[in-house]
Each structure stands twice: as C-alpha cells, then as structure tokens.
Amino acid sequence: MDIRAEVWSPLQNTAVWLGAWLHGLTPTDDLVDALLDLGGSGLTDVLRDLRQVTRGVAGEEPVLRLVLSGPGEAPALRAGSAGAEAASVSGVGALVVRDRDPLTSHILVPDGDGDWQWFTDDLPQPAPAWLSPGEADQLLTRATEEAARMVEASGYRTDALSSPRLTVGTLSDFYDTPGLPGAVPPRAAKLFARADRVAAIVETVTQRLDDHRIDPQLLGLWRHIRAARMAGVAYAVREFGRLT
Q: pLDDT tens digit string along 27-57?
C-alpha cells in the first residue's frame, strides 16, 4: 500500500492555487506553473470554463472545496453520481466547484496522469463537516497524542525514530513543495503544516522504516489528516472570497 497517497495529496495545494486564482489573488502564469509542478497540467485546458461557471457565485460557502477519502471512508459526494463513482475509482480525491445555480456542482476528478474528468451534477451534494481550522487542528492534535501514547505504551522503540512525535527532516522538502500562494491565511498554512508533520510521522514509520508493528496506532490518523486538509482548503478559499 502506498502510504504517501493516503496521507498527502497534491489536490490540497491545487485547490488553494485555484481558489486564489478564481478570486483574482494570483496571476494565471503563477497558477499554471504551480499546476505543472503539482501534476495537474490537464486543468490548464479548462481554466476558462472554471472562470465562467464560477462568475457571479455568491454566498458564504467557498467557491470550491476539496474532497478526500480513504479506506472505509467514501468520498463526500452524492452517492451513485458519476462524480462519486469516478472519485472512488481514482482514489485520489476530487474538487467540488460551485455554480451560480445553488443546486448545481461541478466535480473535477484527476486520474493521476495529469488528466481530469469533469462532471456536472444538478442535485445537492452531501453537506461537508465545515470544520474550522481550530477544530480540525484540535482533532488532529488529540488523535496524534493518543496515537503517541499507544505507541509508547506498546514499548515500541527504533534508533531511526526515537519518538513517535518526531518527524524526519528529509520529508519536509517534499511536503512543502511546490508551496502555496502568498494570499493563504496564516491559520490555513498552520493547519497544513500540522497535517504535513503528522503525515511525515506516519510515512516514516510505516514506509521508510518498513516497520508495521504499530500500524493500528498510526493508520487511525489518516482520517484526521484528510479532515485537516479539507478544512484548511475550505477556510483558505472562503477567506480569499472575503478579500475580493
């Protein structure tokens, strides 16, 4: 199993860059460069269409949001819809883009090779959790502390990772690349950094050290990592809208 695919997704940064661009906070050239770095080059072909469907969208909800899923957790998209089925098959998540029609959503699903599928759904999507950055950070922190206690209670030790709360520096550059637009609110950036740190812990123990003795304690963090990333994207894009 590819642990990295479960704890990190380029869709997080892709969603933030798109949100900043749709609200006029980052130039097109910078967006295109970021998409190329993130492996989302196929989105460059539909930027004009995205601008068109989101023009005039109003309300407090963010113009786009991130949907991630994992083992035992279906994507939060309308059950049985083409977008939900495509997201389940791809396993890498989706972007939900709002339309001027409040009942219409556009579901963008990457295939992992740079191409994207676009689905338009005229029925309401499931309501997301709408966690605030503080709530998501608190849940992730509590889950991490509980996992750390369980690991320590098990007597687990390794020379390469002396504490389950420590991350490995060699992974930091990967999780930071290719960065985020300058308009990202500090609260969202902090939440992304927290999710990256916990993701690095999980990947280090299970993948880099090839040690699976404490998988049950660490893998339970996946859901909280995904929730933090989705909450951070929703908050950032909502704040972009308030700046314009």
A: 999 999 999 988 888 899 999 999 999 999 9
Which of 98, 32, 26 is CA-nearest to residue 65?
A: 98
| Residues of the chain predicted below pLDDT 50 | 160-161, 164-170
The structure's pTM equals 0.89
Q: How far apart (Å, rounded) are the C-alpha atoms in residues 107 and 43?
A: 13
Give the C-alpha separation, 148 to 122, whole Å.
Answer: 44
Q: Which residues pair with 65 in a beta bridge?
A: 96
